């Protein structure tokens, strides 16, 4: 949990979520996201990430569909791809990354 401008919000460590060893480093930070829980209701939460390289605003037309990689690679967590300054970036679908049951439990707390 963190206090963000007087409001306490839950924090989820994405390394633990993906079964990785959770290590705090110099560039480790918390990214605050807002997730829709239906009926016009949103939940704010923090996600612990290894680092943040940049923050950009994208329109829907700038996001390309995720290509098919075959049955061995699960792309259900990917929102799509975007070309930013000539570099292709993979975009996570945060609402799918954070399990629906986790979001529902957080919505009940908020």
Structure characteristics:
110 residues, alpha+beta, three-stranded mixed beta sheet, three-stranded antiparallel beta sheet, 3 helices, 16% helix, 39% strand, globular
Topology readout:
Layout: E1 2-4, E2 7-9, E3 11-13, H1 14-17, E4 29-38, E5 41-49, E6 63-64, E7 78-84, E8 87-92, H2 94-97, H3 100-109
Parallel strand pairs: 3-5
Antiparallel strand pairs: 1-2, 4-5, 6-7, 7-8
- What's the total number of strands? 8
Q: Write the H/E string, N to C.
A: EEEHEEEEEHH
Sheet-strand content, in percent, reads 35-45%
Ends distance: 12 Å
Gyration radius over CA: 15 Å
Low-confidence sequence ranges: none
Q: pLDDT average, as an integer?
A: 83
Task: Tell me the count of domains.
Answer: 1
By oligomeric state, this entry counts as: single chain
Main pleated-sheet profile? 3 strands, mixed
Question: What is the molecular shape?
Answer: globular
Measured as a percent range, the helix fraction is 10-25%
Structural class: alpha+beta
Question: How do the strands of the widest beta sheet line up side by side?
Answer: 3-5-4
How does this model look, in words?
- There is one protein chain.
- The protein has 110 residues and is α+β, with helices and mostly antiparallel strands.
- The chain has one domain (2-109).
- It is built from three helices and eight strands; from the N terminus they run E-E-E-H-E-E-E-E-E-H-H.
- The protein has helices at residues 14-17, 94-97, 100-109; strands at residues 2-4, 7-9, 11-13, 29-38, 41-49, 63-64, 78-84, 87-92.
- It has a three-stranded mixed beta sheet. Strands 6-7-8 form a three-stranded antiparallel beta sheet. The protein has a two-stranded antiparallel ribbon with strand order 1-2.
- Strand 1 (2-4) and strand 2 form a beta hairpin.
- The radius of gyration is 15 Å and the shape is globular.
